[in-house]
Amino acid sequence: MTSLSLVSADQNLPVDWEQARRLAYQAGRAAAAGAEEIPLTAADGRTLAEPLRALTDLPAFPTSSIDGWAVRGSAPWRPVGRVLAGGSPPPLAGDGTCVEIATGAMVPDGATALVRIEDSTTDDDGLVSGEPRRIPDWRLPGEEAHRGEELMPTGTAVDPAVIGVAATCGFESLRVLPEPRAALLVFGDELLTAGPPGAGRVRDSLGPQVPGWLRRYGATVTGVTGPVKDTLVAHLDAIRAGLEVADLVCTTGGTMHGPVDHLHPALAELGGEYIVNTVAVRPGFPMLLARVPGPDGRPRFLAGLPGNPQSAVIALVTLVAPLLAGLRGRPLPELPRVEAATDVPGRGDFTHLALAALDADGRAATPVGHVGSAMLRGLANAHGFVVVRPGTRATAGDLVPFLPLPLTPGERS
């Protein structure tokens, strides 16, 4: 059986919460590699694997920003044609001539000014007069970007605006980092997957909810397996199957060293290496993150989440979210600061993550009730966690770090 190596010098000392986040993030960044080319329509939410550079000047040609006249020389002007968007007009060859022009149309060579339709008049002979405005009403080539100019650096999060820029440049696809794949294994003979709890059995709440958190943190969920029987053989089989299809295998329960806790022996059997083994945070103890050789030789990751539901979510936000940010090539987000609406106690030598709801302005956080490690009611009424560092407490009015949950717009408003 292979022994696991440890990041911390002492296996019995839990890692500081902030350090654990950094270690998880660094592991993800180190493993982020490769790129794939996907259509623009599929790129929302991905990360650029290379800089986005302009394929041509933007605009690529002088472009009218008004409906009116493209004129040459002094008024009055004799109309000699019309230019619509999408056309390539001939040059204006003589002074005293003009063409009617539409917004977005190419300004013909030889034009000296544009005159808005509302600033012009046409006499009985059909001659146009008017005054151009002081600020030219056309966009010049390269006004927004020059050919080859870097518009977005590697690591940019692709959103609809970035997709729009790429489309404007003429791209039909983008090279992006692969989306991490995650599998969930639910451990525990005591779990029910249907019906109400009773007679010593509890309903599994992590199998239904963890995939949603993983997707919100940018992973593609390959599947949920469980409940997995509380045997070492069953654990090994399930983990190996997960490693075949996923970059990250999340497990629930079994992170202690009790008679049916087989995760640590399974990791040893698989040649795993701890990145973090236990974190000094409450709730959330114990949790772990390990690097495990994949079937193709490429490293995979295993995140051991506690079996208690709220503790499992805290393990997700502590270890899994930073790991996925690193794998996706994203920065580790800085924690915003909010005002503590009430006192929040510390937890001695541990970081306290206190579930809290934000006010309508998002500036003040009030701790919610029902926050035991086995409870989920508080989580369902919270926007995130007030972070109280070891050896401290938060007093009402203090500015404190806040770790937001990845809620979608409109949720819990």
Automatic annotation (TrEMBL):
Superkingdom as given in the UniProt entry: Bacteria
Enzyme Commission number: 2.10.1.1
Cofactor: Mg(2+)
UniProt domain MoaB/Mog: residue ranges: 183-326
Enzyme class: transferase
Keywords: Magnesium, Metal-binding, Molybdenum, Molybdenum cofactor biosynthesis, Transferase
UniProt record, GO biological process: Mo-molybdopterin cofactor biosynthetic process
GO CC annotations on file: cytosol
GO molecular function: metal ion binding; molybdopterin molybdotransferase activity
Catalysed conversion reaction: adenylyl-molybdopterin + molybdate = Mo-molybdopterin + AMP + H(+)
Parts of the chain that traverse the membrane: none
Task performed by this protein: Catalyzes the insertion of molybdate into adenylated molybdopterin with the concomitant release of AMP.
Family: Belongs to the MoeA family.
Name of protein: Molybdopterin molybdenumtransferase
Organism: Actinoplanes aureus
Lineage: Bacteria, Bacillati, Actinomycetota, Actinomycetes, Micromonosporales
